[in-house]
Amino acid sequence: MEAYKVKAYGATNSILNGLKEMEIERYAPKPDEVHIEVLYCGVCHSDLHQVKNDWMNTIYPCVPGHEVVGRVKEAGSAVTKFRVGDIVGVGCMVDSCGSCEPCTHGEENYCEGPVSWTATYNGYMKPQNKDFNTFGGYSTDILVKESFVLSIPPALSIEAAAPILCAGVTTFAPLKHWNVGPGSSVGVVGIGGLGHMAIQLARALGATVTAITQDEKKREAAEQLGAHEVLISTDSKAMEAHESQFDFILLTVPDAFDINDYVKLAKRNGVLTTVGLLGPYKLPVNNMEVAMHRRSISGSIIGSIAETQEVLDFCAQHNILPEVQVINMQDINEAFDKMLDNDVRFRYVIDMATLRAEA
Question: What is the dihedral of CA 157, 159, 162, 168, to 10 degrees?
Fold first, then answer.
C-alpha cells in the first residue's frame, strides 16, 4: 500500500521541550477505515506521561494526541456509518482484539487479548513488537477503523468537544458504573482537566457534588462548574467534618498521591475510584479505614466506544462542554511546561490549522 507524508509534531526522546515538527507516513484507507482531517486535538496529561516515558513503554518517535475532532476526507469501501464531510471524533483507542470477553461485551477498554487494545498513539497497550507504532492526533491526518470512530453531535462546539473523548468518558464511565444519580453524594478530588468534567457530569446526573481541592483559588471556578460545595483538602478540620459523607468519590489526580487522605470521607459501603493515575499511590492504603466501614477502592480506565458516544450525546443534551484554551501547534512545548506547573485552566486544545498553514 503506497504511503504518503503528512505533517505532525512529535518527540524523538523523553526530554521535554523536545516536540518538534516532523513528517510521518499515512496510507490510503483500508475498506473498513476512515481517513480524517484533524481539525482540533486536545492536550491531555497522559500525553505528557507518554512523551516522558513515565510508563516505560513509549516507542519513539512518539506523536501524541488522543482527543481528536476532525472531518472525514475519505471513507473505505466497506464503511457505512460515515460519509465525506462528517464531523467525527477519535478517542484513546483505535482497535482491540474483538474476541475476548470484555470486547464481545462492548468493553474494549478492558481488552484481554494478547496485546490488549491499540492506543491512538504508541501502539499496543502491551507492546510485543517495538517496530509497530501508531501516530496520534498531533498530525494533520489520521486513519481509524470505522468501529472506533465517534459521531460528534451538531450541538457541540467542535473546538471544545475534543476533551470529551478522553476526559469526558474517563469520568463519565465510573459515574455510570457505580450508579451515580439523584440522591447520590459525590466528591470530586482534583479540579483539573478530568475533575472539571466530573463536576459537570455528576451534577447533570442528579448528584449532590462537592469539589475537593488543595487550591483555594479554584473555589470560584468549581462553583461555576456546578459544585454544590467546595472542600479544601488541606483544611484538617473541614476534612474531619466531612468524614463518612460521600457515597462515591472520584479521584482525578494524575500523579502519585496519598489516598488515605480521602478514604475517611466515604460512607459505609462507599466507593472511591481513581482515574488518571496509572501507578502506585504515594503511600500504602490503610486497610483498617477501608475494612471498618466496608469501603471499596477501585480503578477505572477511559471508557468503551459505546460509553464514549453516550457521553458525547449526554453532553450535547445537557449543554456540557469542557473549558478550553485553544493554542497553536507551535506552542505545544510551552503548553506541556504549563501542565507540569499546573498553570492551565482545565484543558488546552490545539487548532491543527496552525500546523497545516506552517511553511
Answer: -50
* Contact status, residue 68 vs residue 162, Cβ threshold 8 Å: yes
In CATH, what number does 167-299 get? Answer: 3.40.50.720
Q: What pTM, to 2 d.p., does this model score?
A: 0.96
**Exposed, middle or buried: residue 237 (CB in 10 Å: 0-12, 13-18, 19+)?**
exposed
189 DSSP β-pair partners:
212, 251
| In CATH, 3-166+322-356 is 3.90.180.10 | yes
Residue 118: CA atoms inside 13 Å, Cβ hemisphere, count?
A: 17
CATH 3.40.50.720 in the chain is located at: 167-299
Cell numbers standing for residue 247: 457515597
List where CATH 3.90.180.10 sits in the chain: 3-166+322-356
Residue range 93-152, pLDDT digits in tens: 999 999 999 999 999 999 999 999 999 999 998 877 667 899 999 999 999 999 999 999
C-alpha cell at 12: 524523538
